[in-house]
Amino acid sequence: MNYKNVLLAACFTVAGYAQAQKQAPVIVKASQLVSEVQPTMWGVFFEDINLGADGGIYAELIKNRSFEFSKPMMGWQVTQDFFDEGALQVINRLDKNTANPRFLRITKKAADSKLAITNEGFRGMGIKKGLRYDFSFMYRQTAAGIGLSLELLNNEGKTIGTATVSATAVGDGWQKAAVSFQSTDSASKGRLRVNITGSGSMDVDMISMFPSDTWKGRPGGLRADMVQKLADMKPGFIRFPGGCIVEGFDLSQRYQWKNTIGPIEERQLIINRWNFEFPHRSTPDYFQTFGLGFFEYFQLCDDIGATALPILNCGMACQFNTAELVPLDQLDPYIQDALDLIEFANGDVNTVWGKKRAEMGHAAPFHLKMMGVGNENWGPQYLERLQLFTKAIKAKYPDFKIIASSGTDPEGKRFDFLNTELRKMNADVIDEHYYRSPSWFLSNAGRYDNYPRDGAKIFGGEYAGHSDKVVDGKKQNNWQAALAEAAFMTGLERNAAVVHMASYAPLFAHSEGWQWTPDLIWVNNLQSYGTPSYYVQQLYSLNKGTHVVPALLNGEAIKGQDSLYASAVVDKNAKEIIIKLVNASVRPVLKDIVIEAAKLDKNAELTVLGSEELWTVNTFSSPEAVSPKTSQITVSAGNKLSFTAAPYSFSVIKLKMK
């Protein structure tokens, strides 16, 4: 380790260097059950940021499939061998179809002329050799004459798949045509060329292409490798759909869940606020098609065994942007949306919204138990709107839990005001957000030690260590940030009596389409990998336990002594004791760990996540540079482990109880 790293490490650690020698032992009191750990303790937060939905987990490969972007032909390139400005016309039928007003009218005069439109996808299309691709589109024509010939193109424009679509129906109504075909090669930045054959006139809309290897093989479904990354975490909940997109730049751009269910072609596209939020990362082709809508969010939760946590707009747009408000006497439609959502999720098939859910293919209820009202909203204007939501929801569903916002920061006048007032209101759960430096997370490992045990519970709804690398000033998903998060999470776990949920944010980022860093999982068109922070989250979630037990050093909770941070849980179902221990020091720390009041098997499991270099990151070429390594260790007489915590390491020790 060079001199620079030693200096950085000195800044990083809170309690200074640990000596590689035995000092006072760590005592784990296995029979002293402090509090239950909620099944929802560790979850994930999803927002359509960084091309997280369109261009990400929603597997649609065609960008601007219904010509509804601000520039209707964005993403499409037109090729023709003659000059005919009337060959392609975008028609707007707003008076007849407000959800999907535009379509493309194709007029081809000569059968032997060339006319084609090529879609570029979302930063290209990820195409896999030998995989089936399912193409479809909607059309309308008064007479047959035009056909479509498809070509999948690789990075160099070479054809790697072909198909011909039959579209022969005529009449005033819209029809759907589809064809499936295979790719003969792979491409990271493929495209789809649609050649217009024959002659005549045809209206087309909803031009779509999906890979066949979606999650669970669902047509028009989700990208399987990204969902698998979530399933591998076994999250207790999924918070959706955001985040700032819930609020919108103004109320016209807010997220409205009712516009995201039903037939895909009837879901009304809106601009994504991350399209323009950061001028330095402007993304003019970023819109929300809502192919991933509320039904799909609930279905995803169902698939991976996570509790659904939807967040709804409370009648307030983003206060950093327009701070637009709905007057209190006009708030009823917003409140009704919340009540209707509960019915959509839980109502039987005889209710209005339960019937809509059943018609989408899920007759059984989703068993929704909670929702958030507002995201990062603040001020008395938020509180008075929250009170109206709470009164209406609790009157109809007394046991339903409501998550309340504590604003944007974990301290300061804004936080203090909201925290005080929300507790006076007997809020169920208070959502706290913290995007802070690694040193903040280390110094706040005891944040919840003195929080009141009765009253409102805590949801760490959005957090991430923002680590700046000195040489380039970029926030990175490096090991320094992840290690600090692991240390902070020992404090969340130790205080599970207060903290009932926590989730890192944001979740996904496309390597060529991101607006915000750091993020938990990075993807390109063909690959995905978990960051060091991902593996920290996964290790906590997979080793959740059922009850907190004390882990003490010199009779005190371990939150920086000897640069160590620790927590312990018992899993009564698996009959295990699970110890989580972070060494935030540049040097190894040797400790005896003594387990009191338990009969243990001799063999135990040790999983270590770490790197000697704080700036280590995972990449597409080295996705497991920082990843868990598991081995076996032995418990000696007296239920004692002589354990050496490696420098800059997060260790999980799992002991079997007899």
UniProtKB/TrEMBL annotation:
What catalytic activity is recorded? Hydrolysis of terminal non-reducing alpha-L-arabinofuranoside residues in alpha-L-arabinosides
Quote the EC number.
Answer: 3.2.1.55
Entry-linked InterPro entries: Alpha-L-AF_C, ASD1_cat, GH, Glyco_hydro_b, Glycosyl_Hydrolase_51
Example GO BP = L-arabinose metabolic process
Extract the GO molecular function terms from the UniProt entry.
Answer: alpha-L-arabinofuranosidase activity
Origin: domain of life: Bacteria
Similarity field: Belongs to the glycosyl hydrolase 51 family.
Name assigned to this protein:
non-reducing end alpha-L-arabinofuranosidase
Q: Which organism is it from?
A: Filimonas effusa
